[in-house]
Design a protein that fits this description.
The protein is of the alpha/beta class and 180 residues long. The protein has 2 domains: 111 residues, Rossmann fold (3-Layer(aba) Sandwich); 33 residues. It contains 8 helices and 5 strands; from the N terminus they run E-H-E-H-E-H-H-E-E-H-H-H-H. Keywords: DNA integration, DNA recombination, DNA-binding.
Length: 180
């Protein structure tokens, strides 16, 4: 029976150290982490790896539910996948586990709250952008990646992985830029 930790942050400039330290302090023998949005399961290869290797009696541990996902359906699907492998899910803040029946109910409610919070954030962000546009203060987000440089390197035959490492972005961003 292993305790496996999963840490996630949404952006490249955020720090995973605090989550990883907390998971190790909680007895996780393995901690996998990634920097990718929690809005969906797409691109979350570390989480997929953990799920694929869960054995009966193992426990997937996250510091907070929103580290696992921000969509109720995704969270419930993850719980279901863990259960199919006869493994458990534990959230540290607030402490909830799927070992008991109440854990399922609490996780469902917390998942719905996380999803609602995500919608509120998007709504406030959209309203703020609209107000800024009305004042003429909004110019749009700044591009973090030199798209022309990506296209140039790609046309020179450099792999997407090498471009991503060189420019400090994800491989998927390289593919999106090249395709667009």
């Amino acid at each position: 029976m292993a305790r496996i930790g999963y840490a996630r942050v949404s952006t490249l400039d955020q720090d995973l150290d605090h989550q990883a330290e907390r998971l190790k302090a909680e007895g996780c023998s393995v901690v996998r982490s990634e920097k990718v949005s929690g809005g969906s399961r797409e691109g979350r290869t570390e989480l997929d790896t953990i799920i694929a290797f869960l054995r009966p009696g193992d426990e997937l541990v996250v510091t907070r539910l929103d580290r696992l996902g921000r969509d109720t359906r995704d969270v419930l699907n993850l719980v279901h996948e863990c259960e199919q492998r006869e493994a458990h899910l534990t959230v540290l803040d607030p402490h909830v586990s799927t070992r008991g029946e109440m854990g399922h109910v609490v996780l469902t409610v917390l998942g719905m709250v996380a999803e609602m919070e995500r919608r509120f954030i998007r709504e406030r962000q959209r309203e703020g952008i609209e107000r800024a546009k009305e004042r003429g203060a909004y110019k749009g987000g700044r591009r973090r990646i030199d798209r022309e440089k990506v296209r140039q390197l790609y046309s020179e035959g450099i792999s997407a992985i090498q471009i991503a490492e060189t420019l400090g972005c994800s491989r998927m961003q390289v593919y999106r830029i090249v395709a667009g």
